[in-house]
Fold this protein.
Amino acid sequence: MNKFELYWRDLNIGSIVKTYFDMRDFGIISYKFDYLAEPSENKHLADFIKHSIRSSILIEEGDEEENAESAEIEEREFLDLINTTDWYLINEKGERKIILCPMFHEDDGITWMIDMKAAQS
């Protein structure tokens, strides 16, 4: 079982235990960043995590109309968090791997993929 620390820039979002691998890695996160706090330490990031959780629920439910609206919100409000190389994992050996923007799920689930472009440079 692999363990990682998830970061966005210098902010430790939480500890991840990888529980599954397919095309994307899946794990359970123990948050260090309190995205539910009001006011949040980083409101924009907190809003993104909440939005990502809502979006993953819509995907699971197969609600295409609501999912399309959710995607519009992402494009309008969160592209700076989605299209960035500021997300990364640090493994137990201290190695840093840049990842694509993760997707957060209810019940503390999280999926992610290694950023292959960043890995090649």
